[in-house]
Amino acid sequence: MATSSSWFSLVSMYESHLRNTFTSSGLTLKSINIDSDAHIHYWSPIHPLTLPTLVLLHGFGGNSLWQWSKQVQHLSTHFTLYVPDLIFFGKSVTKSSERSEIFQAVSIGKLLELLGVTTYSVMGTSYGGFVAYHMARLWPDRVEKVIIANSALNITSKEVEELLKEAKIENIESVFMPSSPAELLTSIRLMQKQLPTYVPEFLLTDFLNNLLNENRKEKLELLKGTTVGKEDTISILPLKQEVLLVWGENDAIFPLQKGYELKELLGDKVRMEVMLKTSHTPQIENPKQFNNIVMKFLLGMSSS
């Protein structure tokens, strides 16, 4: 008798639903060669818009569909959205051997320049926050406002070791690139506290096969190539833009205290919002509150 995962994929079915969410928000999937080495897939408006531009950058654990589906519908009525898949996520690839988050930032910068997007705000979550920071640092005249969600740019190698030890995890790869259903379940429970007590193994396997194992070798290289969490000292330069930090109070991967410390490092134009009863993915766990916080910041409204 065939197993459930051998004849259909719940993950693929749900991703089709996510695609519909993007298309119903006026976005369409496109692709472009940004140079002779790299090819990027991205979502952008079907029809030209005259709204302010906002770029959304996802983290590990999937592509742009999985991490911004709760935002695009709400934000697309106020902003011209560009939602790329970072290199080696989705169908975005490169022949280059570079693997740092700075390389990701340069790649997205090239994409926007080719598309004729001259000024924009940028929002990144977790790994995407690393990329957003470097985009703001590299192009202060292009990037208008910056939103960084649960992204501890300031974490040290010693702190990473301590967090792994506390969570009883051997290495960071098992958190961001789990290789078994058991590792995936542990990773999900670290990122989101509000989960069912039981998750069937076939569903975890389905998720691994249809999402995490795509470009697995290259994604592991991205983790090794990331500069964050590799040094004992912190080298964060202040940003010239207005910055919003959004943090889940119960984040077990990048603890809230790192958010407060990052706020002091990024300069005088930084605001921080803590979302109660959320963890590493507040944009998914409480999208209504997350979207309201983001909208107030981007539209220049005072936070209540």
Q: In the CATH classification, which architecture of the domain at 22-156 and 235-298 applies?
A: 3-Layer(aba) Sandwich
Helices and strands: which structural class?
Answer: alpha/beta
The percent of residues in helical segments reads 40-55%
Poorly predicted runs of 5 or more residues: 1-6
- Helix segment tally: 13
At the fold tier of CATH, the topology name of the domain at 22-156 and 235-298 is Rossmann fold
State the fourth-level CATH superfamily of the domain at 22-156 and 235-298: Alpha/Beta hydrolase fold, catalytic domain
Number of DSSP strand runs: 9
Specify the overall morphology: globular
Helix-strand topology string:
HHEEEHEEHEHEHHHHHEHEHH
Tell me, rounded to a whole number, the average pLDDT.
92
Quaternary organization: single chain
The portion of residues forming beta strands comes to 15-25%
Q: What is the rounded distance between the termini?
A: 57 Å
Largest sheet: 9 strands, mixed
Question: What's the alpha carbon Rg, rounded to whole Å?
Answer: 18 Å
Task: Tell me the name of the CATH class of the domain at 22-156 and 235-298.
Answer: Alpha Beta
